[in-house]
Specification:
The protein is of the alpha+beta class. It has 2 domains: 6-82, Beta-grasp domain (Ubiquitin-like (UB roll), Roll), CATH 3.10.20; 91-161, [2Fe-2S]-binding domain (DNA polymerase, domain 1, Orthogonal Bundle). 34% of the residues lie in helices and 16% in strands. Strands 2-1-5-3-4 form a 5-stranded mixed β-sheet, with helices on both faces. Helix 2 (91-98) crosses helix 5.
Length: 166
């Protein structure tokens, strides 16, 4: 049996360029977790259904369990570890805490990254809009109400921040 092909490539994750040497067939999820030590993206269903592995690639959500790491070359990857800036939590992270929008925390990184993309495109959503946007991310603990409340509150804070020039 032939050994798997090993490739070397660069990935930009959370604003930091990394050099990775791994099997060409290794999933982005596994590269992030095993090679870069980022525990935020989670392996849930491994079929792209649950959203636990969600990351942003060039500002768009992707399921890191459905793509190879080499497919992310020349892209900007953002994981939950890169959302806070200079030690200050993003409004979404703060509101998830305030609204108790997490229990076990397994879905939280994917929920926050999905909401981050969504609020960037829909700064003043309705509850129905938020529920629709998050419908691809599964949570087995919260019942979703607190998550929706957190996203709506974060959206308000982000709008106020834009108005104030922050």
């Amino acid at each position: 049996m032939k050994a798997p092909e090993v490739v070397t490539y660069a990935l930009t994750v959370n604003g930091i360029r990394h050099r990775v040497q791994t099997e060409a067939r290794k999933l982005l999820l596994d590269v992030l977790r095993e090679d870069l030590g980022l525990a935020g993206p989670h392996a849930g269903c491994e079929h792209g259904v649950c959203g636990a592995c969600t990351v942003l690639m060039n500002g768009r959500t992707v399921r890191s369990c459905l793509m190879f790491g080499v497919q992310a070359v020349d892209s900007r990857i953002l994981t939950i570890e890169g959302v806070a800036k200079d030690g200050v939590l993003h409004p979404l992270q703060q509101e998830f805490s305030v609204h108790h929008a997490l229990q076990c925390g397994f879905c939280t990184p994917g929920m926050i990254l999905t909401a981050l993309e969504f609020l960037g495109e829909h700064p003043d959503p309705t509850e129905v809009d938020v529920r629709d946007a998050l419908s691809g991310n599964l949570c087995r603990c919260t019942g979703y109400d607190s998550i929706v409340d957190a996203v709506l509150a974060a959206g308000r804070r982000m709008r106020e921040g834009r108005k104030a020039g922050v």
